[in-house]
Amino acid sequence: MKIATYNVNGINGRLPVLLKWLEESKPDIVCLQELKAPNEKFPIEAIQKAGYHAIWKGQKSWNGVAILSKKHEIVEVQNHLPGDDDDIQSRYIEAIINKTVICCLYLPNGNPYPGEKFEYKLKWIKRLKRRANQLIKMDLPAILIGDFNIIPTEKDVYKPEKWKDDALFRTEVRKAFLDLQKRGWIDSLRIIHPEKEIFTFWDYMYHSFDRNAGMRLDHILLSPYLSGKLKDAGVDVSVRSWEKTSDHAPVWIKLKE
Hints:
Layout: E1 2-7, H1 15-25, E2 29-33, H2 44-49, E3 53-57, E4 65-69, E5 75-78, E6 92-97, E7 100-106, H3 116-138, E8 142-147, H4 171-182, E9 186-187, H5 188-192, H6 208-211, E10 218-222, E11 230-235, E12 251-255
Parallel strand pairs: 1-2, 7-8
Antiparallel strand pairs: 1-12, 2-4, 3-4, 5-6, 6-7, 8-10, 9-10, 11-12
């Protein structure tokens, strides 16, 4: 089974790119972030024509998450990260697909640091960790997948010394990512490629992609239940070079059925 995540940076503006990638990559399950569209503007007809079922939670102009499935039914669990009923940002959707819990997330960026946006990011992470711990205790197949807006280590970013006071690379958020791993969550890309330089995002400015001045923000974390099923993982870097593409590239894993 092939499972992927892709921050599309505007699903309607990037729809041709998304559909082309779906046709070429043929993932079984896809998590999307940054739809930047309200619920009624989600292009469900085009997604269905491409062969996918979908659930989504949109938001006008900002945020938005979706889960697509090619073969299996999607049973929605929740479309809001528990812990703050006043949080109206569309950043989380959770479903069961083929007996696996899929937690699609778009974690807050948090910049500028310091400030309210960074504090919101830290609170959001605490809520995510609570849900992640619940899933660990239930001892079931589960995946935390999406744009975490966290650069885990120095080898995950071009010139790390420039990012020490950025909300993506602050000690607090890197520690939170490490805490998830200590609880048993498996960083699938790093298990398959422990030393390789891996980036999933390249800014549109400063010819960042041409210089490979990127960072790794998009992650697929597996619960311990799935530890023996990981076969492969990678990044479809070439998609970042396509015309009118997102500033992120799709990330994928393959699991044993």
